[in-house]
Design a protein that fits this description.
By secondary structure, this protein is of the alpha+beta class. It is built from 3 helices and 11 strands; from the N terminus they run αααβββββββββββ.
Length: 249
């Protein structure tokens, strides 16, 4: 080999070696492909022998949210044709029954199966606990009728001493019970009062005070009384509580 120049024999030999290597690689690849194809055919033949069809390619997961789905045999509603899940009892699109409930849901007729009717608004007549409203307006309630006849105010008792000093109590028509019990019309928080200590009655334009046989008695204008007429500005003492009576009439 002369410096700077290649021997022509070496060039020819290199080209021959390159072609030999390329042909060898092609032969190897073709042999591998033939082996793979033969293996697939053998596998499909074996599946046919055991009663199975040829192997299918796995399909990618679609939008269907209920696990694997066979797209070639997707279940559909017999009424509207929309795709449904086999576990559903009713079609969410047309509300018709699916599966085993379908024959009972659609009654057969001479003209064919009847289409289900869409759900309508609730009927208040079929709901006994729903009050009927006249027209579109709510009826007003007369509170005076619910509370019964109202007794008018005819006077007051003003607490001048004791635990409730400064408070005033209304006296209404009829009998007004006074005492320490919570069921009285006028409740006085005094430990020296009986549960039903006394009463004031207004009737026919007259005010009358009566003691109910209390333990410590009742005093009207510093005089112990059992029953007496009341007039404006009278002073009533029950236990340690002093009350001033004010008449409206």
């Amino acid at each position: 080999m002369i410096l700077g120049f290649k021997d022509p024999r070496d060039v020819v030999k290199g080209r021959i070696d390159s072609r030999i290597n390329s042909a060898e690689s092609d032969a190897i690849n073709q042999a591998r492909g033939a082996v793979l194809r033969t293996g697939d055919k053998a596998q499909n033949a074996a599946r046919k022998v055991v009663g199975k069809g040829p192997a299918k390619k796995k399909k990618s997961m679609s939008w269907w949210p209920f696990g694997k789905k066979d797209e070639d045999a997707a279940p559909a509603c017999g009424n509207c044709g929309k795709e449904v899940d086999p576990s559903w009892q009713a079609c969410p699109y047309c509300r018709s029954a699916l599966g085993a409930a379908a024959p009972q849901a659609r009654a057969a007729s001479p003209a064919g199966p009847a289409a289900p009717l869409p759900p309508g608004p609730p009927n208040p007549a079929n709901m006994p606990n729903v009050p009927m409203v006249a027209g579109d307006k709510t009826m007003a309630i007369d509170l005076s009728k619910l509370a019964g006849p109202r007794r008018g105010v005819v006077g007051w008792l003003v607490c001048m001493s004791g635990n409730q000093k400064g408070l005033d109590f209304r006296i209404v028509e009829g009998v007004n019970h006074i005492g320490a019990g919570a069921d009285n019309d006028i409740v006085i928080t005094d430990e020296y009062l009986s549960s039903r200590h006394a009463a004031i009655r207004y009737e026919d334009g007259r005010y009358e005070f009566k003691d109910n046989d209390s333990t410590n008695g009742s005093f009207l204008n510093e005089k112990r009384v059992t029953k007496d007429e009341l007039i404006d500005n009278d002073t009533i003492r029950l236990g340690r509580t002093e009350l001033r009576f004010k008449a409206l009439y």
